[in-house]
Amino acid sequence: MADFGGLGGVPGGRARDHDDLFEAAVDRCLGDQLRTDEEACRELWSALANVDWIHTNGDTASYSFRAAGDLIAAIRGTGDYMDWYCSGPYPSVSPRIAEALAHEGWRVEGVG
Fold first, then answer.
1. Boundaries of domain holding 97
2. How far is Cα 98 from Cα 12, in angstroms, rounded to an integer?
């Protein structure tokens, strides 16, 4: 069982973490949308900031406000955490985000 997430806040952005299985799942199921649709980015930030995600294998993922922004910027390949910091309401998981991550085996805990 692994715990994914982090404190984030890398000024100038960071590269994609290919060892982070949650980040890889987000890239697979939402990456194209995140790179072209800023609303999808805001929805993802809302679904990650201080929200607990659990995988069917027991892995967990939890992101601070900054780390949520870091993940989005890393997947987009541009910017940094401040571009997405507090960009949407939290905790709030849209159907688009919930359904996409469910296909990767992830479900949110305690947030509607």
1. 7-109
2. 29
The pLDDT of residue 5: 73
Return the residue matching tokens 């194209």.
32
Residue 13 burial (10 A CB sphere; 0-12, 13-18, 19+): middle
- 19 falls within a domain: yes
Tokens linked to 102: 């469910």
pLDDT given at position 27: 97
Any domain includes 2: no
> Contact, 76 vs 27, CB < 8 A?
no
Tell me the pLDDT band of 61, cut-offs 50, 70 and 90: very high
CA distance linking residue 7 with residue 14, whole number of Å: 13
Q: Where are the beta strands (DSSP E) in the chain?
A: 3-6, 52-55, 60-63, 106-109
